[in-house]
Write a structure and sequence with these properties.
With 256 residues, the protein is α/β, with parallel strands linked by helices. It is 41% helix and 15% strand. It binds phosphoenolpyruvate (PEP). The site of phosphoenolpyruvate (PEP) has 13 residues, from strand 8.
Length: 256
């Protein structure tokens, strides 16, 4: 079996104005000065910066992702952005089902599934987020919740070339709290087993499962060394090029 190539993806959320493009230039310079050949790097800025970010990142090897898409190709949906439009801006991936969208916009698994299908239709990688709330964990319902989200959100046709799963415990996002390595290992192993049931063992073995939730340079090494963790989805720490590159650098000297 070939090893899974890890991915570190930065989610800028609703942060970033024109001056933030300087962080992308700095990131590009870091990667040029000291490449990390054993891992992939992606940045997901807000939609307003996608086209300009795409220009900045040309030739850098850093992929560009978006944070959400509408399920349909085009039409009367004021304010929405289709997966095809994101691809047209230079994006190669889109995050769907982030817990902030599930909470702020009431997104349910069926909608996340439709968005992931839209991503596939447009040739984008769907980064599908799942994860339990603090109450779910307290109620020992983590695996049930994650199983339900995977079953509802991962469309048929998902495979390693078009899909990434991000396990993001809601209570760990932006809080500085993280699960123990053993807890992360348990959920990631469970996610891979569930994917085996949903998309087949072979596909599941190759698919990247990212951990997300308060990943920082200081804890990246411990978290990214956990079994079945194939990279990270990074929020707050991705806003600074130095921090995102430091997290990526965890893979320096490792072979994929
Ligand atoms: C996220 O929102 O995807 C995330 C992981 O955020 P943070 O790293 O800030 O916890």
């Amino acid at each position: 079996m070939t090893a899974i190539r890890p991915l570190v993806a930065g989610n800028w959320k609703m942060n970033g104005l024109s001056p933030s493009l300087a962080e992308l230039r700095a990131l590009k310079a870091h990667v040029k000065r000291k490449p990390v050949p054993s891992a992939d790097l992606m940045v997901c800025p807000p939609a307003t910066l996608l086209a300009r970010a795409s220009d900045v990142l040309v030739g850098s090897g850093i992929a560009l992702g978006a944070q959400d898409c509408h399920p349909l190709r085009s039409g009367a949906h004021t304010g929405d952005i289709s997966a095809e439009m994101l691809a047209d801006c230079g994006a190669t991936a889109v995050i769907v089902g982030h817990s902030e969208r599930r909470t702020d916009h009431g997104e349910i698994d069926a909608l996340v599934n439709a968005k992931a299908r839209a991503a596939h239709r447009a040739g984008l990688t769907a980064i599908i987020c799942v994860g339990e709330t603090e109450k779910d964990r307290h109620d020992s319902a983590t695996l049930d919740v994650v199983a339900r989200q995977l079953e509802g959100s991962v469309p048929q046709g998902s495979e390693a070339t078009n899909t990434v799963i991000a396990y993001e415990p809601v209570w760990a996002i932006g809080t500085g709290l993280t699960p123990t390595p053993a807890d992360i290992a348990e959920v990631h192993g469970f996610v891979r087993a569930e994917l085996g049931r949903l998309i087949g063992e072979e596909g599941a073995r190759q698919l990247r499962i990212l951990y997300g939730g308060s990943v920082k340079p200081a804890n990246a090494c411990e978290i990214l060394s956990v079994e079945d963790v194939n990279g990270a989805l990074v929020g707050g720490a991705s806003l600074r090029a130095d921090d995102l590159y430091a997290i990526l650098s965890t893979y320096c000297g490792r072979t994929a």
